[in-house]
Amino acid sequence: MKHKVENNLQYPETEPFLLMKKLLFRILVIFLTLISLSDAYAQYNEGDTVQFWSVSYVDWPPLWGQPQRVVNAICRKAGAHCYVFVEDQAPAANYAALTALVNEFDTHYYPDLTAKYGPVPDEFDQDSAVFILALNENNWAGYFDPGQQMSDSLVMAKWNRHSSEREIIYVAANYINYSQSTVAHEFGHLLHWGGDHSPEPIVNPTKYWEEAWVDEGFSTFAAMYLTEDIYQQNVQQSAYFSTEPDIPLIWFSNYNQVQLFMLFMYEHFGNWDYISTLISEQLNGINGVANTLAVLGYPQGFDDAFEQFAVANYIDDPTIANGKYAYSHYNFTDCHLSANHSAIPTGTKNGTTSAYAADYIAFNSNTPKPITIDFNGDDSGKFRLAFILMNTATDSVFAVIPVQPDAFNNAQFQTDSLGILFNRIVMVVMNVDSTVHEGESSPYVYSASLLTGINKYDPAVSFQIYPNPAEDFIYLDSDDIDLSESEVEITNFFGQSVMKVSLTGQNNRIDVTGLTAGAYLLGFSLEHSVYRRMFVKK
Questions:
Q1: pLDDT (tens digit, 9 = 90+) per residue, 490-536?
Q2: What is the CA radius of gyration of the chain?
Q3: Backbone phi, then psi, for 323, in 5-degree steps?
Q4: Per DSSP, which regions of 147-192 are E strands?
Q5: Phi and psi, residue 264, nearest 5°
Q6: Helix orientation angle between 110-117 and 212-227, rounded to the nearest 10 degrees
Q7: Distance (Å, rounded) from C-alpha 188 to C-alpha 254?
Q8: How far is 58 from 149, CA to CA, in rounded Å?
Q9: Closest C-alpha to 82, from 113, 59, 56, 57
Q10: Which pLDDT belongs to residue 347?
Q11: At what angle do helices 95-104 and 180-195 cross, to 10 degrees?
Q12: 504-513: per-residue pLDDT in tens?
């Protein structure tokens, strides 16, 4: 047996002793490593003074005229994942508020959001902690500046500005004592930029950040996730579309709009897989969202998703189309109507709508009024339409019927069930033309008239379809007319015949299991007139 002499003592190196020795050595290595890492990451302590550059505004042209300045700031609180620096000329910050902010960031914001959005970008200072810098500022409450994540030489060469080469969240000093939601928002910007910036595709080599509406969507979603229980359902919330739905989604101007679009896409197209895939997607804007949907295996394109979003903003009803037009987390007040018509015919009316925005136009009647709604959009534009059929007395939706305008942006919708099965039709006019610039809109005209000709509603003739909506079979019933031996035709809302059935004897049952879900018109001839009723196939 071997022996080792150490401190003039001899002892046998038994197998358990060797194992214990190796274990103690590993613990010592880990301990020393942690000390080293702690020294590396805890580079600043309370009272330290550091110089920073103020915001470069490389991503915000309206403030390019603002001079950039050197900021002398003092570390007022240091945490495991952040430092709070306050400009030396700024009002004194409340220490308890800073402590609460740092604790919230270290224990909640940092671990929870990095798990979903990805790690903090650490390009230059080898310090994974985030600098929360409070400075005297009147233009905003919080700001993430992508210029600070780039080299000073690059920022100087491209924009004649400077970079601090640190991961910074700027906060206006007047807000630092109650800035948790602001920090959550800007932290979302920081992590999104870390996962979705250059290198960009070869066709776009100088784009250093996402389009603003997507970028702000990520930051507002981050703040919602960090400051709310995003998994709680039916939280009452105000919404931009309750006052003005005609706001262009792709030309960012409304935080609530981009937040709700991001939430809607999260809820309907993959949850966190949608978020992480879009963050890593190097295409920007509409193309980035469309490619994300394709990567995740969804058949919908961007315009399809926007149409779904626009309809949901009006009805928010989980019972329609398997929840396709509903939010889970939020409930909202009523959507604003661009026009509300009770007198039909309406005459010709004019409207305009912005790029990826919507107008909601209502036609109402509590008495039977078979009507035709005609739409014509600008020939050079690109529109989508959807017709929401609902009963305002019960606040229930009967059906949602998408209608695609033709090549000349003409479309027509006809029904003889207004005032019978439903008392309101809402025409959703969606502008899906990405070439419409910021501040511009596309014109359209529309009218509603009484339906004439062979498509007839006679209140003296009682004729019902039940059940309506239906899943497999529908039944026809009338107290006034003999339906036996009738020829029945079912058409979709594009006027295409999808089924013809000959009724025999007392058998008034029709099998509709072969029809796809949607709204249909059932018609039959009677005394040189064709009577039609609408029904919905679930």
A1: 987 666 889 998 887 667 889 999 998 878 888 887 766 667 778 88
A2: 32
A3: 80, 10
A4: 168-172
A5: -60, -45
A6: 140
A7: 17
A8: 11
A9: 113
A10: 96
A11: 40
A12: 766 788 999 9
